[in-house]
Amino acid sequence: MLSKIPIDIGKIRKDDLDREILRAAIIGELDAINLYEESANMTSNEDIRAVLMDIAGEEKTHVGELQTMLLRIDSEQQIELGKGKKEVEELTGKK
């Protein structure tokens, strides 16, 4: 099932619009990754599986590109991402 993008353009402040656009795009890319990987796991055709997994990999690159842009324009997101990483490292004992 694909996600519903939680954006109502009429309710978004102009200052927040670019951040919301990037987050919505990230949601779309994550949905695409899930679709391609799930489909690849369902098929018994190795050629189809290889193509779908390759496309899923490209979508993961897109997530990285969009995340990079989001971190450039949202300093709070950057700070919270760092906090999350630190918490996981503390909980797991792994970096």
Order of helices and strands: HHH
Overall pLDDT metric: 93
Low-confidence stretches: none
Shape, please? globular
**Radius of gyration, whole Å:** 17 Å
Q: Structural class, from helix and strand content?
A: mainly alpha
> How many individual domains?
1
Q: Share of helix among residues?
A: over 70%
How would you portray this structure in words?
The protein has 95 residues and is an all-alpha fold. The chain has one domain (16-92). The chain contains 3 helices and no strands. Helix 1 (17-42) packs antiparallel against helix 2 and helix 2 (46-73) packs across helix 3 (75-92). The chain is globular and about 45 Å long. The two termini are 33 Å apart. The mean pLDDT is 93.
Structure keywords:
single chain; 95 residues; mainly alpha; 3 helices; globular
